[in-house]
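Hi R.,

As promised on Friday, here is the backbone we talked about, encoded as structure tokens. Could you run it through your design pipeline when you get a chance and send me back a sequence?
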């Protein structure tokens, strides 16, 4: 199979390579629902030595810079409680954590979650967190620019490998809210 974007040696429909995915991502693909068929989610093998964004796009395709998204875990605090959420924004932008995210979560303060908390709660590797397979009770805040793309490159749950996903699929994930102004 040829990858729909980028220049990858190996591209496989995600349902055909569940053993290459971390457990929560494999489980989400296995029980996939929504208007986008799971077979349209493509797993591509990548080498961690090319992980830096500038080096990655030079190696795997310059077109990927405008078609990549980052998934970050945030913690919103109010009183003694903490709400964890994920934000998905284009890699050329930053999530407005202190404005849009904080207000949406109804938090007094919002910040990026510590690495050990993000990885422990998601079951994914730091630097590879993906919106597919997140805890079902988390809000997933998605920038509309991500949803508008035909295909988006995101993490696969681990540092080796990425997923290529039709943008509209992110709006249908559990807890997803398409939030105007999220990526700035």
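Update: got your reply. Pasting your designed sequence below so it's all in one thread:
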């Amino acid at each position: 199979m040829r990858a729909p974007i980028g220049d990858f040696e190996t591209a496989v429909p995600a349902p055909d390579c569940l053993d290459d995915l971390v457990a929560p991502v494999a489980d989400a693909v296995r029980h996939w629902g929504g208007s986008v068929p799971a077979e349209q989610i493509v797993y591509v093998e990548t080498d961690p030595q090319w992980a830096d964004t500038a080096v990655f796009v030079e190696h795997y395709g310059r077109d990927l810079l405008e078609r990549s998204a980052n998934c970050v875990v945030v913690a919103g605090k109010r009183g003694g409680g903490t709400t964890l959420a994920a934000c998905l924004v284009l890699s050329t932008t930053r999530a407005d954590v202190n404005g849009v995210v904080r207000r949406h979560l109804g938090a007094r303060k919002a910040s990026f979650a510590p690495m050990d908390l993000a990885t422990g709660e998601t079951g994914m590797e730091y630097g590879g967190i993906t919106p597919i397979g997140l805890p079902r009770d988390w809000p997933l805040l998605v920038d509309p620019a991500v949803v508008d793309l035909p295909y988006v490159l995101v993490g696969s749950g681990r540092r080796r490998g990425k997923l290529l996903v039709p943008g509209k699929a992110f709006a249908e994930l559990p807890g997803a809210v398409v939030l105007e102004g999220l990526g700035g």
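One thing I noticed while checking it: Residues 39-175 form a domain with the YbaK protein fold (CATH 3.90.960.10).

Thanks again,
M.
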